[in-house]
Specification:
- The structure is a single chain.
- The chain is mainly alpha-helical and 141 residues long.
- It has one domain: Winged helix-like DNA-binding domain superfamily/Winged helix DNA-binding domain (Arc Repressor Mutant, subunit A, Orthogonal Bundle).
- It is 62% helix and 9% strand.
- Strand 2 and strand 3 (104-108) form a beta hairpin.
- It is globular.
C-alpha cells in the first residue's frame, strides 16, 4: 500500500497571476453584460417573477448569511428560504462566498451587479426612480 504525499505550494507570483486572471475575466463579463444589456434585463426580469425573489435579491446587495436573510425577510425556516435561493442561484443572480468567520454568504452576481443602478432598482420593484426618491425623502423626514 502506497502512501500519498501531498504538497501545497504558495507564492506571491501565483497569487498575483490569479488576481490578474480574475480581473480580466471580470472585465470581459462587464463588456459582455453591457453589450447584451437588453437581453440581460429581459432575462433578469423573467427570473425575478415574484416579490419574494425580488426581496431576497435586494437584500443581498451586501453579503448576507442564510440566517441573516431568514431573519431580515421573516422566513420561518432556513428550508423555506432555501426553496427560493435555489431558483435565484440557478439563474446566476446571486453568488456564494465566505465571510471572515468562514460562514457561507450570498451576494449579487456579476451578471446582476453590473446592470445600471436605475435598471436594478426598476427590476427589484423600485419602479419610477423619482417616486422612489420622494418616498425615501418622506421617510427621512
Amino acid at each position: 500500500m502506497t502512501k500519498k504525499i501531498s504538497l501545497e505550494v504558495s507564492s506571491e507570483q501565483i497569487h498575483s497571476d490569479l488576481t490578474e486572471i480574475k480581473e480580466r475575466i471580470a472585465a470581459l463579463e462587464t463588456i459582455a453584460s453591457l453589450a447584451n444589456k437588453p437581453v440581460v434585463e429581459t432575462y433578469v426580469r423573467e427570473c425575478l417573477a415574484t416579490d419574494t425573489l425580488k426581496r431576497i435579491v435586494a437584500a443581498c446587495e451586501q453579503p448576507k448569511t442564510k440566517e441573516e436573510l431568514r431573519v431580515s425577510l421573516n422566513f420561518s425556516t432556513i428550508q423555506a428560504l432555501d426553496h427560493h435561493l435555489k431558483s435565484i442561484r440557478e439563474h446566476d443572480l446571486l453568488q456564494q462566498g465566505l465571510n471572515t468567520d468562514g460562514n457561507l454568504t450570498f451576494k449579487w452576481s456579476n451578471l446582476f451587479a453590473r446592470l445600471p443602478k436605475k435598471t436594478r432598482e426598476q427590476l427589484l420593484g423600485g419602479g419610477n426612480t423619482a417616486t422612489t426618491k420622494a418616498t425615501k425623502r418622506a421617510r427621512n423626514g
